[in-house]
Amino acid sequence: MAEAPGQMTGPPDAGEALSFAELRRLGIELAQGLAAESWTDYNVHDPGVTLLEQVCYALTDLVYRSEFDVADHLTSPDGEIAFSRLGLELPEQIFPCRPATVMDYRRAILDAVAAIDNVTIRPLRKDAAGASLPRGLCQILLTPRPGIGEGDRAPIRAAVERSYSGFRNLCEDVQEITFVAELEFEIHAEVEVERVRDPAEILAEIYHRCAEQVAARVRFYPFENARRADRSLEDVFTGPLGQSGFCDEEDLNRDRASYSVSDFFTLISGVEGVAYVRDLFFRIDGKIRRDSISAGASDRVLRLQIPDTPDRVRIQLSSLGRMLNVPFEAFSSRLDLIMRKDADGGRAVQNVRKLYSMPRGEHRDLRQYSSIQTHLPSIYRVGAGGLSESEAPDVRARSRQLKGYLLLFDQMMANCTAQTAGLSNLFSCDSSSGCSYASQVLDGDQISGVEAIYPPQPADVMASLVARYDDFTDRKGRLLDYLLALYGESFSEHSLRTFNVYVTPGESDRALIENKARFLDSIAELTRDRGAAGDYLDAERSTVSGLQLRVSCLLGFVDYPKQSLTAAFRKHQLSPLADKLIPASGAEDKATGEAGPGRCDSAGFNPPENSWEDEVPLLADGELAAESLAQLVERVGSLLPDAGGNVAEAVLRSGISLANYRLGKVGGRGDWQAFLIPDAERQWCWLGDFADRHDAIVAVNRLRRMILQLNTGSEGLHVVEHLLLRPRSGVIGELDSTDSQIDFFSFRLSVLFPAWTARFQDRHFRQLARETVRLNCPAQVIPEVIWLGFDDMLQFEQLQSAWLQALSDADTTATDLDAAAARLTGFLLAHRGEECWALAPTFDRDKASWE
Q: H or E element: which one contains 189?
């Protein structure tokens, strides 16, 4: 009996909305609304209801699959989750930061150099002679481990300098690294012991405890200790991440200048086997102190004198009133063992992965699909067994007709399972697939005889149908925006889309997706290290500043960072040429003696009005093999309107667009000729003659690719921190006043861009570059943006290379380093750029200091 429409209930609860009963109820309600007059039987025996129930059952299976844990959807067949591919950073990668405070720097240095007990960092405003110094310099004061002599200090100083250079921030540097002065003292005492331990062990432990008491060593503790104390991962990974664990804030803040006799009474009494202590006093500088001792200055530390001969042992052990004769060799070996064990135990490399459990899921083959036709009664004649050949033709025809009708539902749900199975690809940094909706084709094992229903090449047909509704760049872009937002970042789409002149209009959105994916792939470095400075002691120059990396990514530079912005031209004996110097067409090449391409400005040239090709077609990668810049220069470099290997800046600007090329037949010179309009005056450049139209098209496409690679290969930036150019042995000649030196070296840097590439010839893109530098530069630093032509950039890179070589070479004298820095400083002063003000320090002349 039919269910009356008036008996329908209201909307179900959210938890029941996708249940079988609710889906069946909704389906019948819709059927009644659409076909109430023509379809009157809605009971369970009705074929339509049977088909509806099959579809509802299949839909509940899709709902079940979609409700698996997120980790299950992201788990690959090998049972692992590819976190980096999904743009997900692990806690130890995303939580820690670079050293930012004095405490951070101390932690980082102590973790990197095991031979020191403590380190103090002081900002320096004046040198030893009282002269003002640029802001950003500091003094590092080291407290070495006990027993480290003068001969062992040079390697320690070099290790500290090397580690500091690796994690310093922009416009910061160390002026000097010194060691604290050590003031030795002796402990005299008589100690009554119980014979429960070897006296040599007791004496060794007494000396070790007393030495550690005054050493004020900053100790590292395993990360597991913090986790057991219920500290969160965010708390454990606050600040720079060390390899040896975490150090206690109290140890870092402890600055004890004096020690009393009572302190050591308590300390020695706590040693196992010690009964009591009597007659304890200190001897320092030949004087006896029975109350307390002090280092006397903040740059000095007390150091307990460890006996190296039997006559230097000042602590006498006794038992039952009788003095004990402790063998010196036994005492010395046990003390050495205790000290080595203590040193090794506190510096073990920590495995941070043990601090937490990484998300794990179960891989599920969610792509599998079982047709709704499989479980229909055999009378429907659509089951897996198919039909026998004895069936009448009209029966087989009706069976195929029903299969085709049900395939519409099967296909949509099969595509849904494919989409669910592909969620890990959709939410990844990989954009190579080019589609955000998935589909699949069913086979004969799932639906018998489906091959006869599908059109030829069904997979291609299905993919093309899905692609009609798949705005890949929009959906993938929004997903990447979501992943970037997890880290509090965003990517400016409008700016790059406006200035992305190196791609065709159809490639612009895809290029933007790739830029976002690159940004996300390096999200930890681009956020954590945005204020990082380059490591000037790295002889390979493999590290650059965080500002350089971030600006390069945001501006869409290709293959960043580059050590040279002129190499793309120099490797092929090319260089940019000012527009006005483009030669006339037919000018003789001095090298070959033949006429080469050039401006069509002779009196005999009259460009036709209607015989040009409307547009040179773009050849895809399949039509034109990928070629390196060297191959392109060899094949089509002769087509450039050049003079002695020069490439006109107008050609670099206009040659990237096929719309500026024309093909035609002019003046009977060859069958086909190629031309370029490279400048605002619309003056034609003849490129060459070709045997046929196809050869001309291939040549123009190759020429365009070569010009694109010359442009993108030259785009980048150099960052120079003025503080590193400061004089080490004297005053740089170009800066003859103290105020000008402080002004130039304090919290300033130069950012140098190439002026000859297509985008950087655009004043609007230059403004975008300036704003990007300003917004991403640390607030206390003033960047100066400089635009250099090719020759000036080549000179700068030569000066910079010589200076960096001198800076990283430990054998360079201060005089030679100052000479290299002076040449680079003179160049920067001669090409002073535009200051991008953010938050700048000001010089108070009355106080003679920076505020």
A: strand 181-193
End-to-end CA distance of the chain: 90
The half-sphere exposure of 745 on its side-chain side, counting CA atoms within 13 A, is: 28
Helix (H, G, I), strand (E, B) or coil at 502: coil
Identify the CATH homologous superfamily for domain 93-182: ANL, C-terminal domain (3.30.300.30)
Q: Say which amino acid occupies 688.
A: G
CA distance 397 to 400: 5
Residue ranges, comma separated, of all CATH 3.30.300.30 domains in the chain are: 93-182
Residue 504 φ/ψ, nearest 5 degrees:
-75, 160
In the chain, DSSP finds a helix count (H) and a strand count (E) of: 28, 25
Measure the CA–CA gap between 637 and 626, rounded to whole angstroms: 16
Q: Is there a contact between 444 and 451 (Cβ–Cβ < 8 Å)? A: yes
DSSP structure class, residue 42 = -
Angle between helices 261-269 and 199-215 (to 10 degrees): 140
pTM above 0.90, yes or no: no
**Do 751 and 784 contact (CB within 8 A), yes or no?**
yes
214 Cβ neighbours under 8 A, 6+ residues apart: 259, 301, 302, 303, 304
DSSP 117-180: EEEEEEE-SB-TTS-B--TTEEEEEEEEPTT--GGGHHHHHHHHHHHHHHH-BTT-EEEEEEE-
As a whole number of angstroms, the distance between CA 35 and CA 20 comes to: 22
Burial 727-737 (b: 16+ CB within 10 A, else e): beeeebebbee
Identify the pLDDT of residue 579.
Answer: 65
**How far is C-alpha 548 from the geometric centre of its chain's CA atoms?**
12
Closest CA to 372 of 113, 691, 821, 61: 61
Strands (E), 727-790: 748-754, 782-788
Mean pLDDT by 10 residues, the chain (851 residues): 47 69 89 76 77 91 92 92 91 90 91 89 84 90 84 91 93 92 91 88 92 82 84 87 81 75 92 91 90 84 89 91 90 89 69 87 91 86 73 85 91 94 90 88 88 90 91 90 91 78 82 89 91 88 89 88 90 81 51 50 50 75 84 86 76 89 70 77 76 89 92 94 87 54 88 94 92 92 93 95 91 90 93 67 46 48
DSSP state of 500: -
Q: 476 Cβ partners below 8 Å, 6+ apart?
A: 426, 431, 436, 513
DSSP for 313-372?
Answer: --EEEEETTEE----HHHHHHHHHHHHHHHHHHTSPPP-GGGGSPPP------TT----T
Please count the other Cβ atoms lying within 10 Å of the Cβ belonging to residue 813. Answer: 12
- The dihedral sign for the CA sequence 180, 185, 191, 193: positive
Q: How far apart are CA 366 and CA 74, in angstroms?
A: 11
Q: Rounded to whole angstroms, how far apart are CA atoms 690 and 277?
A: 105
Give residue 255's pLDDT. Answer: 66
Asked if residues 208 and 338 have their Cβ atoms less than 8 Å apart, the reply is yes
